[in-house]
From TrEMBL:
Residues 1-29 form the signal peptide. Keywords: Signal. This is DUF4331 family protein. The lineage of its organism: Bacteria, Pseudomonadati, Pseudomonadota, Betaproteobacteria, Burkholderiales. It comes from the Bacteria.
Length: 518
């Protein structure tokens, strides 16, 4: 095929003509603060979900959920804390059904022992300290597996015959604050004070991968888990996207009417809270994966349907005695966040339905959001901005791209015979456990051609599929690498940026003009 950079007009004409014939890539990207309902509740803000099987034997399923995004590493005297009062859940359906077969639930508990008001003779430590690291406060987590039997599963399921606590009181990975915390709190090296004349204890961090690995915990089912602060693994020129799809020339094959490159990754230097779970595949296929190692293109018996959710109790009241959250929960547990194919909510669902998406499950996505998928607003936006005219795309092709877009529905379902109906088609990551995961068959973290690359540039796939009707069109290629290298083994996430010497910030000299110069 002709590279888009060499002949964009010819290329886009060809791919747009294939709009209803595109058959195989699901749209994935990220959802940071995409909905009005999460702006004031970051603990309920899912950003990305990943799900893939271990290559080769497929004997492990890897699940990652990210939430509480856009955390500046050095921000705030309490840093990024695990969220009390929420339930973070991985939901797994099987075959054609979106109904939960197994749920893995993670709950966090932060504790702080109260003490009397300060006095001149107080030793260091305790609740009167200004910084969490010195308080002696603890952060732990509980991991529970819930197995579905024949009946619907309520969100506050507590049936002991169906629930198994896989581990409890597991320490959460602490934050990467900086060199003094590494030595004085984490015990990673000898501390020398200011009076030593040696600045090493204030300038050389010791928080490394071996320290992070201490917080990988074994589970009773043979799996593993880790949770805490990590580098945000997503990358996107979000500044341009949210200036009404103001894409740069690298995103649009070099057309002269686009803004000048380069595109900049908004998430560079930011951390996020992550849960990474390793699950033995026998939890899901006790008798083994059907036709393991063999692709059966029309099969559904080896499919897993994965999404994540965040839940809290319905009633939240101010509680002065709760030093951690200041709140007390009561009543039924309700869903306040979810995520499957990232950017489904931000890239397809209209603003007035964003909160409905967060509060509902994928089982009703056809009824609730079918029109958003079939008639994507992003295509109409691109048309109004003159993108298609600049690329020489005929209006007849643009009209086809406006919908109905059955190709997007087919992509979400991997081309498998899954009914396009409530309970079967929805915003979940679908993966075939019988074969190696390769996007869109699951979503893998890392695994690209370089250590800081993902297996696929999901921005390119997303925008190309929706806007051009072909996931291989090569659009949105302005930002393709992460700011840190991913790991090639569990938990795959890169360690958090250090609060002292990494992240965002500047000297503010000279001042920045109110209207920036291009």
């Amino acid at each position: 095929m002709t590279p888009i950079r060499k002949n964009p007009r010819r290329w886009i004409r060809r791919i747009a003509a294939l709009a209803l014939a595109a058959t195989g890539i699901a749209a994935q990207a990220s959802s940071h603060r995409e909905a009005l309902a999460v702006l004031n509740e970051p603990c309920a803000d899912n950003t990305d979900t990943y799900a893939w099987v271990k290559p080769g034997a497929h004997d492990k399923l890897y699940l990652i959920m990210n939430f509480n995004p856009l955390h500046e590493p050095g921000q705030g005297n309490q840093g990024l804390r695990a969220c009390n009062g929420y339930r973070y859940q991985f939901h797994i359906g099987m075959g054609t059904s979106l109904a939960d077969r197994v749920v893995y639930r993670v709950e966090f508990k932060n504790t702080l022992v109260p003490e009397a008001a300060p006095s001149p003779s107080d030793p260091l430590g305790g609740g009167n300290e200004l910084l969490w690291q010195l308080t002696g406060g603890t952060e732990t987590m509980k991991v529970t597996r819930i197995v579905r039997s024949g009946r619907p599963m309520p969100i506050d399921e507590a049936d002991p015959t169906r629930t198994t606590v896989l581990a409890d009181n597991l320490p959460v990975l602490p934050n990467n604050h900086g060199p003094q915390t590494d030595r004085l709190i984490y015990g990673l090296g000898t501390f020398q004070g200011y009076d030593s004349g040696d600045a090493t204890s204030r300038e050389v961090g010791l928080y490394d991968q071996s320290f992070v690995d201490r917080f990988i915990h074994s589970l009773a089912n043979g799996g593993r888990v880790i949770a805490g602060q990590f580098d945000d693994p997503y990358q996107l020129d979000e500044k341009g996207v949210f200036d009404l799809v103001n894409l740069n020339r690298d995103d649009l094959g070099g057309i002269p009417g686009a803004r000048r490159p380069p595109g900049k990754d908004v998430f560079t230097g930011f951390n996020v809270f992550s849960i990474a779970l390793e699950v033995p595949i026998t939890d899901l296929f006790p008798g083994g994966i059907p036709h393991n190692g063999t692709l059966v293109a029309n099969s559904t018996d080896s499919l897993l349907r994965v999404h994540s959710s965040i839940n809290r109790q319905r009633v939240q009241t101010v509680d002065m005695a709760n030093a951690i959250t200041g709140l007390k929960g009561a009543g039924d547990w309700v869903q306040v966040g979810r995520n499957g194919l990232p950017l489904f909510n931000a890239g397809l669902v209209g603003t007035q339905r964003h909160t409905l998406y967060l509060r509902s499950g994928p089982e009703r996505d056809i009824t609730n959001f079918g029109a958003d998928v079939l008639f994507p607003v992003l295509v109409r936006n691109a048309d109004a901005l003159g993108i298609y005219r600049a690329l020489g795309v005929p209006q007849s092709a643009v009209n086809t791209l406006k919908g109905p877009r059955l190709d997007i529905v087919n992509a979400i379902n991997l081309g498998r015979p899954i009914p396009v109906a409530d309970g079967f088609t929805g915003d979940v990551i679908t993966l075939d456990a019988a074969i190696d995961s390769s996007f869109p068959n699951g979503r893998r973290l890392g695994g690209g051609t370089a250590p800081n690359r993902n297996q696929v540039n999901v921005n390119t796939v997303l925008i190309s599929l929706i806007v051009a009707g072909n996931p291989a069109a090569g659009l949105a290629k302005g930002v393709e690498v992460n700011d840190k290298d991913y790991l090639s083994r569990f938990p795959f996430l890169a360690p958090a940026h250090q609060g002292l010497l990494q992240g965002h910030g500047g000297i503010n000299v000279p001042t920045v003009p109110d209207i920036p110069t291009p």
